[in-house]
Specification:
Order of helices and strands: HEEEEEEEEE
Structural class: alpha+beta
Largest sheet: 6 strands, antiparallel
Shape: elongated
Number of domains: 1
Radius of gyration: 25 Å
Number of helices: 1
Amino acid sequence: MTNVISIRFAAFFMTSVLIAISLGTANLTFAAEITFQFVNDTDRALNLKLFSRGESLQIWPGRSKAYSLRPDSAVQQLKIRCTEGESICWGAWMTLQSVSGQISGSERSTSIFKTQAGVGERGTRDCPSCCQVCKDGATGPIVKLSNSIAVGPDVR
């Protein structure tokens, strides 16, 4: 009797494991690595984020972080892990501050504005040419960012 219970339990356990494995593979995503390439041809550092347009809605390096692209004519590469087949878009920006007015009369005004490129700081701009499909081992074209960087209209 004990052997029958053991055999039934083993059969039940193996069936459960096989069902769990088959259900799990339907949602299995394959990680891939893709490399983005940038040249910062401005006179200041640029902030940069990457945004998934897929189901994950992932942001690289994170919601409250940004990569820094130093001003340099050399190609700077950024490699990320993403889900094979998802679209990844880049957004870059530079924060500028302007101070004007009199110093002694306390009539100074400070203006802060951002110059944005690609899909922008929050990934809400329209820029189809700023996106790449995640494919393992892929390397995107070199994106040259200059002082005349611009963005498309808000889409979100």
